Amino acid sequence: MSNTPQASPETPERSQNMRRRGVVRLLLSLALMAVCPLFFLSSFIQNGISGASKADFAPEVVVEDQSSVFEDVNGQSLDAAMESIGFRQPIKLVILSTDNVPTGNLNEAVLNYARSNHKEWLNASRDKWADGLVILAVSPSYRKVGTYFGEDVKVSSSKQSTIQEAAKNDFRSADWSQGMLQAAQAAAKYVPDSSGNGGEDSVPPFYSFVLLIAGAANLLRGFRLRSLTKRNLREARAHWDVVQADRYRAEQAFAGIGDAGKYKTGLDMRYKRYESDFVEAGKEWDEIGNPTFLQTLSAALNNTSADLRQRTESMDASDDTFAAAAEFFNLGAGWVDVWMKEIGPVMEDLEVLCELVTSVSEEMGTPDAIRGRDEILQWSSQQMALIDSLKEQLAKGGITPIAALEKLDEIAEGTRRWAKGIILASLKADPSSNSDKRYEQWENSQKEREAADSADYTGYYHLNGVLHNYDPAKTIRLNSQSAGIDLAALKAAAFGTYAGRNSSTDNWYLYQPLSTDRTYYQSAHSWTPSSDSSSSDYGSSGGGFSGSGSSSSF
Description:
Blueprint: H1 11-54, E1 60-65, H2 78-83, E2 92-97, H3 106-117, E3 133-139, E4 144-149, H4 157-172, H5 176-190, H6 205-245, H7 247-255, H8 263-288, H9 299-329, H10 335-342, H11 344-364, H12 367-396, H13 401-428, H14 435-448, E5 460-463, E6 466-469, E7 490-493, E8 501-502, E9 507-511, H15 514-525, E10 548-553
Parallel strand pairs: 1-2, 2-3, 7-9
Antiparallel strand pairs: 3-4, 4-10, 5-6, 8-9
Helix pairs in contact: 1-6, 4-5, 6-9, 7-9, 8-9, 9-10, 11-12, 11-13, 12-13, 13-15, 14-15
């Protein structure tokens, strides 16, 4: 078989598409970054000129002091002090104090006050504030400040917050008149002129700044993709070189596996995938070629390089698996090392079982729970001892390699039966009002889970006080991290038959790490209903009113 398959006819077209996407990303980013500062500067200058030339309209001031808190400011009445503030267009400025806020919603209180006493503050359809109106309101007792605007003079919510903040220091000192003066001066900065210019809401530099950031972010993403692509290709090349060098060794190892019992079917499936991936990887290398700078800025090339890295990494692990299988089933010189790695997933699951039963029994605290914990810990200890003894039996010929792996299957089955019992006992013993719903959450997680939802085996375990490392991708017994399997085509089974085949769907079943079930259990066990409450800005009596306005506490 050739190690360098011929490029497909579509390769030049794909390369051109990748290059075109890189060009588009670069030009779009540069355009946004070049144009947006001009908009920003233009808007800034326009607002400055507008503010300097048109802030000369004295407002028509109406003071409604329902709480009797306003006093003179520097020897002037509050309305006279307000009239000295210049706005960009003629406005009616209402200064309102009220403690008639029965619902605690100042927006609602101001609207109800206007409906009862000043219908002229509302527009003809009574669903918004009247044009040219600015209301500054305070509730001293409820410690709230509000700002409300007619449609032609409204400002953004962020500027409303700024106006409110301008008053709060004085309000906290109970200097209500000075606070209102500060708020009115801040409002004069942001209310636009009669043409909609000036103020921070018209031709906003904020949006120009957002576009500038978007352009920079798009360019940075391109360079991030370039970095990821180069890393993917570097790692893929390293794996590919090893795969090509080991190609003949993998073929010979697979052919020499011999009698592998029921495990031969899984190895056949993985070898078929290995051969298919070898051909596909060769095609992908031809398609990628030597990518240009512009091509590396595209997401398409990054996706292709990531797929190639995963494919070559899987093949690199698969050929090691075939070699390990041949060594183990034939009890070759390195079979002990293979066995110590093969027991890794089972040992990890036993350790998770011990941690799970310990935490659950401590939480339940009942005598039955404590007895159950002791029984399960004793069983786990016995299984670990059995696993350790299987190595000696293999060495003496007291058990075959196939039978030893089947023993691991039996232990894996027992581990999951115990885990399932622990989880169900804990959920059913839950004394809270959420217990039924928590059990339902667990049941749904078992029905809806996919193989891709699996947590990973850590790749290490302890036996007789010694730490052992292994690679979950290279074990003979299938797990969700095994090299050469298609997780999308397989169905993970938390509790069931190992590597059983469903004749109706032709799917393979395999175990996920037991830590996955522990995570699902912990999520279900701690589930609480979410709170979902919302209210209209103008309260329950607001009806369809949608005038511009907001309030906040001080």
